[in-house]
């Protein structure tokens, strides 16, 4: 006779066991064991806890909302039924988001150069040049150059706008500029580099040329992610800086801090930093997920549109849940299975949302076949394994 450990353990011990699950698919599978397990997962907010554990940047999310669905106000504690619906919705959104982030797709995510802390010759040596693939533009070298400094410890800052307010960044590439027109072909790299991600405290909706000439400080932005410091090689190559863990950028802006100067210029004997190319690879989650700032609060509303597909550079739409090619044997159906279960859970929140989990025959409408790790068939009836 099988025993349900949830009935034998206290809540804290059960939560510790559930928190050992580090994949959204595992949490969804656990919630389907029985109605009691599903209620436990939803009531304890384990989907949200999993998202926060994997991506701490989500701590600035004040609440979640469903586009074309129902958003619960933040002060829902007075009604237990409304509070339960809020927790159920959180479970859907955070589980869907965590699974999508696990896909770790890598696309170029920078769309616009915003500002450099200094520019030697504007606009010829503008930050815009760092987003141009060619090394030459109109018969001249294409690069950004800082102003010269006698102190080699003076840093520089480059700010870029990402594709959307919610991006997952895996790695950043930087190519220092080599001055082939100067004696000795010097390379103007920095000693090291660091990355921050976040959003401006005020809208950057005025003339972009004016913005590029502004000198922004940390007082002008909220940075909700800061990377370690990476050494930079004094080489003319596109250098890859792999983040320790994929970073979730909430707000849509990337700051590149170039720390320390290496190369003097012979003409004025000042230290410069020059960059040819910059690229940030990861995944934009728009329009399926967006983060809308709450005015003057430093918090965001996480908006989820289950009908939408995330943008991709090749025009291929991404479904609500995808199956990764590297799924282990016996799990080949879990992507579709999660998709079906999430769609079923979404029905009360999104009017007209299709139930792709419906069986074709009336007599089997409550049964779903899945494969366990050994390839044996399990039957799920009314959310319970039998």
Automatic annotation (TrEMBL):
This is F-box protein. InterPro entries: At4g00755-like (IPR055336), F-box-like_dom_sf (IPR036047). It comes from Kalanchoe fedtschenkoi. Gene3D superfamilies: 1.20.1280.50.
